[in-house]
User: What shape does this take?
Amino acid sequence: MKQCNLVVYGISILAFLISPYIVFAGGSVHVKGHFRKDGTYVQPHYRSAPDSSFYNNWSTKGNFNPYTGEEGTVDSPPIKSGTGVPSQIYIPIFTGNSSSVSSSSQTNINLPSANVTPSIPENSYRSGNSWYCNSGYRRVGDKCVALNVPANAYVSGNAWYCNSGYRRVGDECRKLNVPENAYVSGNAWYCNSGYRRVGDKCVALNVPANAYVSGNAWYCNSGYRRVGDECRKLNVPENAYVSGNAWYCNSGYRRVGDKCVALNVPANAYVSGNAWYCNSGYRRVGDKCVALNVPANAYVSGNAWYCNSGYRRVSEECIKLKPGEEPKVIPSYAYRSYSYSVSGYGDDGYVYGDIDADCSRDVSGYLCLEDGKEVYFDGEWVGNGEVEGYDEDGNYYELEVSEYHGQGLMTEEITRSFSSPESGFHIDTRCRNDHMDMRMEVKVS
Assistant: This one.
């Protein structure tokens, strides 16, 4: 009895090590009832026989368990790698003698590899952990189905496209209905140059005299401008030239209405485009260029003068620096700017806008024309509250100040003080702004 019990015990161990189920014909196995490691008891049941294929498992989507009728729900096979499971185990076969087991009585049992690569359907290829259908096939569930390619089409990847000159209508490629005076590009048609599309036709452009065709439109020749469906010749005044569909005054002239008027260039000035500027060493005062009053130990650069090296500016003089004294650098915030609202008239009629100025004669800003166009203005003070200058196209304007933003119209001397903790000195900026003769005196202490 003792020997019998040992044999039964050995057979139980052998059965547990080999498999918890018994294989039956027909690709199914019976799984005996058993306990899991967590103590849960698994009832006896049937399942598909284990092999290397994922697609014949009852749990795979599209299959079902013939014993219970339960449908599969798993979409894709699991991918496992390197679990450390041995490829073989050795099972001793008991012969009734519990005291010894000979090596000759061992049986090698081959286990499924832990790195089994799941199979993929026909007409597909593997990439990483997924599979894809070959060109000319499309995925339908877990299969690759050949594309149904109609006539006059070609395959690209997993789809088909109509040939040039054809367009897709449902599952067909229908030939384009190309009208006269048109050409095909891809799956559409376009009118030839000189024609325009009207519905399903290409109608010739009605090109007027003195015009040329470019693509599907016409344009007036240089020296002409479009008026409705015509090209009318530009009325170009004397001392002007044509550029495209507009005219411009020659250098040395400025536009006044429909004419080009010669600039009134004073002595010691030069012409640049449609404006004049004072020569180096001179500054503009009204309509004249007045020579700069350059003190000793100073040099001229453009329309201003500066102290020589080793000197510093004090009012209208250049004072020699004391031994060891460093020239003081005036910070940029010492130069304050002011804003004015202006209005007046120019070559293009009434204008208004805002200009900016500092302690100099120069002003600049943007003006609004009567047609709503905005132009950039650059000019200078020419009188008490009066400004004149030009825009970027050379048009001339005379403006008057209507409002000073901040302190009212400045006509008297004001003093502003600034401290510079970084450089350790104090600045007094004295600016006389009477819009006629603007001066700035900077004192550094």
Remarks:
- Residues 2-18 form the longest helix (17 residues).
- The helical segments are 2-18.
- The CA atoms of residues 21 and 31 lie 4 Å apart.
- DSSP finds one helix and 44 strands in the chain.
